[in-house]
Amino acid sequence: MHGQRFRCYPNRGQEKTLLRWIGCQRFLYNAKVREDRYFRTFARKALSLAGQKPPIDQQYSHFIGSDTEWLREVPSQVLRNGAVRWRQAYGRFFQKRAHRPTMHGKGGEQGVWLTRELFAFEDAGAGGYQLRIGTKKHPVGPLRYVADRPHDRPASIVISINAGQWHVSFATEEDVVYPRPAEIQAELSQWDAGALHAATLGVDRGVVVPAYASNGTVYAFDPVQQRRMARKERQRQRWQRRMARRTQGSSGRHQARTRVARTYTYANNVRKDLAHKASHALVTTPGIRLVAMEDLRVSAMTRRPQAKTDDQGRPAANGARAKAGLNKGILGSVWGRIKTYAQYKAPKHNVLFLLVPPHHSSQECAVCGHIHPDNRPTQSRFVCQRCGQTDHADHNASRVIARRGVSAVLGPCKTHAQPVGAVRPEPPSADGYAGGDHGKSQTGPRPPAHGSSKPETMPTTASAV
């Protein structure tokens, strides 16, 4: 399946009709949710219903009555699709892919799902299409939309609105059969370690730099985008204060709420654009067959801290304010989107996307493998306390991630437990650091490494195997 999402521009009359369709479909979906909760509650409490399961069907006609006559003002297919949406959500619950269906509110992005009875793509010449919405009884007319790429005719579409902007989205079948990740990994497992390391790209994700590749490429927001997002942040705070002073349900409050929602649109579009461009560049880099990233648990990393109390049971400081700032930086760095987009784009370019363990990747040396907190004196500087290697901290971490990706594909036996392509470090000199003269022998006991979890001497090929 290949997803498409384009901007569309309905006129005032079409907006009014589509908003009515969206509201009616949402009402029916919520009605099915309330009905399910009602049956499940009585099934638990009524003895006569013991052992009977609540019905999970797509019936909706009993929701149309004297008090809901306005539901007849929309096509019946819109109501039916609302019930089908609820049934599909329950199917995902049975497959353990999501929770039970919950109520849909009026806030945020809203959309209506239309099947073939309610739309048609008509030829508009020059290989383009014109989208016509509605039925003979409920016509909407031609809907103008801008397609920046050719597409096939889909079986269903979703027309959505968010912060005053309308979009039409759909998915179409693809005739091309792409290799599965398991097939690509089986192919790469037969490669030589050096050749695979040369075709591997490690990616380190951070707050200051969203993505830093092992080939030295940096994917970050440019200064213009940062200034504009900061300006939108100030505008959002100003309009939130105005909205708080306006009366509930008034047109002025609705206007302020729309302005607040629009301030989020620019930052969301910029982050989505960066994630798409970065993921596309990673999987289309010439000569790259393996892209490795850290397996970061973003949801756990952005969890709010637990409340703390002192000896008298009074609330104590728990660093919630600082943690909130860190959470905002993590969520604004599009870690999850870059991973998700690269994960589905990689097979299309015959590239394997792999997640590797993230532990100590920022403290491990990419040359000798030495791990110690002192290896990273600042946020952006890396200085190995064993071999003296200096590098940008994010670049060094990306090289470590690339090495771990190679080890995950080939296994420790083929990689000989040594960084692929790395130079064997020199033995430490008498002062405890590497870099002694090659022609002189080292005398005296060898000082221990600075808290390293790696052995002082790298294992030979025979011992590693």
> Are there runs of 5+ residues with pLDDT below 50, and where?
416-465
- Shape assignment: globular
Query: Which sheet architecture does the biggest sheet show?
Result: 5 strands, antiparallel
The CATH topology of the largest domain is what?
Nucleotidyltransferase, domain 5
CATH C-level label of the largest domain = Alpha Beta
Helix content: 25-40%
Total helical segments: 12
Number of domains: 2
Q: What is the SS-derived class?
A: alpha+beta
- Per DSSP E runs of 2 or more residues, the count of β-strands stands at 17
Q: Terminal Cα separation, in Å?
A: 44 Å
**Sequence of strands across the biggest β-sheet:** 2-7-8-1-6
State the CATH architecture of the largest domain: 2-Layer Sandwich
In N-to-C order, the SSE pattern is: EHHEEEEEEEHHEEEHHEHEEHHEEEHHH
The radius of gyration computed from the alpha-carbon positions, rounded to a whole number of angstroms, is: 29 Å
Mean pLDDT: 84
Fraction of residues in β-strands: 15-25%
Could you characterize the architecture of this molecule?
This protein has 465 residues and is an alpha+beta fold. It folds into two domains: 2-172, no CATH class; 181-218 and 273-303 and 333-438 and 445-464, Nucleotidyltransferase, domain 5, CATH 3.30.420. 38% of the residues lie in helices and 17% in strands. It has twelve helices and 17 strands. The protein has helices at residues 12-45, 76-94, 181-188, 193-198, 223-245, 251-283, 298-301, 320-331, 335-345, 393-410, 412-415, 461-464, and strands at 2-8, 110-115, 119-125, 128-134, 139-143, 145-146, 156-162, 165-172, 200-204, 211-213, 218-219, 290-294, 308-309, 315-316, 352-356, 381-383, 390-392. Helix 1 (12-45) crosses helix 2 (76-94), helix 5 (223-245) runs antiparallel to helix 6 (251-283) and helix 6 packs across helix 9 (335-345). It is globular and about 80 Å long. The protein starts with a strand and ends with a helix.
